[in-house]
Structure formats: C-alpha cells, structure tokens
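Today's session is about reading a structure prediction critically. Students often jump straight to the picture, but the first step is always the sequence itself: look for stretches that repeat, for charged clusters, for runs of hydrophobic residues. Only then move on to the predicted structure, which in these notes is written as discrete structure tokens rather than atom positions. Here is the chain we will use throughout the hour.
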Amino acid sequence: MILDLFRVTGRVAVVTGAGRGIGAAAAVGLAQAGADVVISARTEDQLDAVAREVAAAGRRAVAVPADLSDLDAVAGLAATAVEEFGRLDIVVNNVGGAMPRPFMATKPRHLVDAFGFNVAVAHSLTRAAVPHLLAAGGDGGDGRATGAVINISSTVGRVAGRGYLAYGTAKAALFHYTRLAAADLAPRIRVNGIAVGAAATSALDIVVTDDTLRGQMEGATPLGRIGDPEEIAAAVVFLASPAGGYITGKILEVDGGIERPNLDMGIPDL
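Below is the predicted structure for this chain, in token form.
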C-alpha cells in the first residue's frame, strides 16, 4: 500500500525547538507515523505537553529541556536518543530565528549570531548524529539511504524583503548547508530542507490576532491564508519516511505560493 511508505514505525527521531509550533507538530506527526522521539526546547512545561500528545499516539517521548544555542547541549541530544531508545534515524533541525531590523540597525554581531543559531546549531546536532544514523542503517543492504536529516528554514532565505537581512541571510545559508551536507553524507544519509512560509505559530500571534495584519498577509499569499503547523509536519514526515527515499539535497517549499515576504515591515527608504 502506498500509504505504508509514509510510515516510520520503529524509528527514532530528535526534534529541536519542539516545545510548540512547527517543532511540536513535527514531533507529534512523526509519533503518529510510528516513531519514538527525543524532544528539546527551553520550556519544560511545553515539552511535557508535547510528550503527552506523543504518548496519546502510542509512542514514547523523552523531553530534554535545554538552551539549544549551546552547541554542546544540542549535540548531546544525539547520544540521548541512543541511550534512551537504542538508535537514531531522523534529525529535525527546527531551532532558529533572528529579530527583524532595518539595514543600518543590523550590526555585524547580528549576522554572526543569526548564523550561529540557524546554521552552527544545526551542524552541531547533525555532526553528532551521523555515526548513529549510519549505525541504525546497518550495512545499507539494498543501497537505500536510511538516515534522514530535515532542516527547517524559511522562504525569506530565498526571497528579498526589508528588515530580514540577518534572518534571511542565515536561512539562505541553511539552504546551501543542506545541499552541501547532502553531498557529503550521500548515499547513506539523506539531507533535505523545508522553506516555510507564514505558519500560525506563537511567533505570529501578533499577526493572527490582528485583523489588519492577518488580512495583509493572507492577501499577499497566493493561497489566501496562513499555513498550519501540521502542514509543515506533514512535509517533515514525508521527507523522513521511505516515501521521500529518493530525495536528497532538496528544499521543499511549503509557503502558500509566495514569491516575496507577505508581511511588510514598513521600513522606509533611507
């Protein structure tokens, strides 16, 4: 059955930034598709709530509260997965972000910080995970890659708009990191990314609760609405599962069809 290709039964995933929003939806989606998960974020209460949803799906979750800007802490999640579940098959690098700023207010340190949080953190976990991803795949008998890494990036990494200099540059770097890592880790590990448009997470609370701002974003989106975190989670499950087994080094655009940022920051000309 074709739907069986979307199952990840018996596999183990690490999901960062999993306390809410896209990360939480991805962790629950992977659990519903059959995986056990290690989930990590700053806030323990949020992780506990996600762990209960994973349990309701019939799978196990290990919650690791941590500051994921700490490269050692994020790398340690790979070992935690193996210690708790005996293997690691899937990595979802979801943690990231940077505050929008006008060009002249964007200092070099903002670029350094954005690169570190969005790219170096993803690399730290992926690098630590590689030996375990290879081990979980055995000898690669049929030549198919069994390990999967999914990097959550942003449409702002490929389209230009005012105010997104640090964030967009870092997310563009994560796109190319994805392609380069896929080349380095083929054929045993697949590495793909998701270019996320506007999704209804807590980061957009100010937008989704303001009729004017929400109308602006929906009007600038070809599909006429803001996305749902579960739609991003569905893409994660696809890329992690055998259904995505012939895909690596690619960026899947889940953005409602936008070709420019759909939120105008209102930054005037210099």
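Discussion point for the tutorial: The mean pLDDT is 94.
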